[in-house]
User: What shape does this take?
Amino acid sequence: MTDTDAQPTKDNGYLLSWLWKNYLHRHKWLLIFSSILMAIEGSTLGLIAWMMEPMFDKAFGAGNESALWAVGLIFAGIFAVRGLTSIGHKVMMTTATQRASADIRTNLLGRMMLQDNAFHQTHPPGYLIQRTQTDVGAINGIWSAFITGAGRDFISLIALFGVAISVDWRWTLVACVGTPLLILPSLAAQRFVRRRSREARDLGARLATQLDETFHGIIPTKLNLLEQYQITKFAHWTRQLVRAEVRAMGGTSSIAAMVDFTAGLGLFCVLIYGGGEIVAGEKSVGEFMSFFTAIGMMFEPLRRLAGLSGRWQMAAAAIERLKELIETEPTIKSPSAALPAPKGVPQIAMQDVHLNYGDVTVLDGTNFVAEAGKTTAIVGASGAGKSTIFNVLTRLVDPQTGSSVVGGVNNRDMSLSDLRGLFSVVTQEAMLFDDTIRENILLDQPNVSEERLEEVLKAAHVSDFLPKLADGLETEVGPRGTNLSGGQRQRVVIARALLRDTPILLLDEATSALDTRSETVVQAALDKLSSGRTTLVIAHRLSTVRDADKILVMDKGKVVDQGSHEELLARGGIYAELYELQFKTKGETAEARALKPLSGLNVSSPKPTRSLMSRIFGRLSGRD
Assistant: This one.
């Protein structure tokens, strides 16, 4: 049994207190005025029950027509007040709760974006989307139902209970004979609903994660014939979710059903006990009708309140998760006394940096210096730690030991905003947002002049393809830029980086996914972008880093060699081996081998094209 199961009352009060302190108190005046109107509406039920006695005894029983008019007007007034106050408090309550929900969503998104890589590796996008949308929606629903419904029904219960006691306290006691029977079963049902609701929330997050992965990976899914696999997997978790939701609803409904059983028992006892007094002439019919109406009306709000207790348990499971996320402190923070960022174009240095992910060593005593205003390339096999260097420099992750120094300042001594404001990053993913090309370039820089924007577009070669687009800069790029080609996406990202105009440029396989023609154009844009900046380049294709001022060779988390292209080739070692692997085949470049005269081909053959193409592709692939 969890703490939540063992102490539901304490937990419920704590969660409500947390909601009030952090979100609802900002809208307290709306809630206060709404509560006043709600109290008026709730009290009208007591007035309706109380008016039964004069209606039966003074109007009907005595045959008094003037009393009948008076009672009728009072009833009309009661229902008019009830309708007006109902509209008023619901509008006010909805305004307050919707604003509070918006505050939670915004705060939650902000907190999640502050978290470091480790957090996002353990919390997939689908899980976070589920928390932001579905869980906040559950809270919003329970706020309206709980505060509006519970407050109104609670006032109604008090008013009706007061009318019942004023008629006969003994009848009231008899009517409540079954109430103690509700306590233990209701507590057990609440614990059951809380557990099932937590289970349903987890399953909902799992389904959201799968949907996110499925839609983002729709092309690999189709190419690998995984449609049925994804459907079967989704159907399995959907069945589990349905099962959990049904069980939670069954528990919620059982709480309200217990009230029905108790109401039936209470009304039976009152009818037998009070009916005898009516027959004996000890009580009037009007008194009995007033009491019976009060008790009858009392059980309906009681039933709704019981149902709300189950719904609250479902919402409490969502609140617990949201509270946990919102209160999760990021492990990477700005220092309390941050040093200013260096001015100008800085030098970058890593000094004996060690970084482990669990038991896996990623950086193992990494040391290097990237000179200010020059281009430093980082090469090595996959898993050597190249991309991790970028993550350490920008403090997406902090190493266990060692330091990263930018312009003479340890990156941990700068605020995160100042540090990351020094870097522009271009990666092979070329991440774009589902917006226009203009917005993807400008982002959070709305005051850029058209002249400056045009300059950036030309430098990044975006102007080359804009005329081919019907809407030009206002073209929607689609989700993740899917409406543009790979080369076009890269040029948009380069334009964005040019506009940022930061002193440090990080290029991570920026042209690896492009065809030769696109690579040539993008490389020209990158050359302009890197001019006058401290540039670090990660590349697998060594052809893109031959002209770097310095090349760092990494292996198993260490810089094992460094120098210019010619120096590294002359020394041999890992770089020379990589170069030989990529550019040499038995002393001959792949390009030269593919393009040298194709001797021995019989071009006068009746089918020369097939033979010619077979030999060309054979040579390119190394099979011929």
Observations:
- DSSP finds 22 helices and ten strands in the chain.
- The radius of gyration is 37 Å.
- The CA atoms of residues 362 and 388 lie 8 Å apart.
- Residues 1-10, 585-624 have pLDDT under 50 and may be disordered.
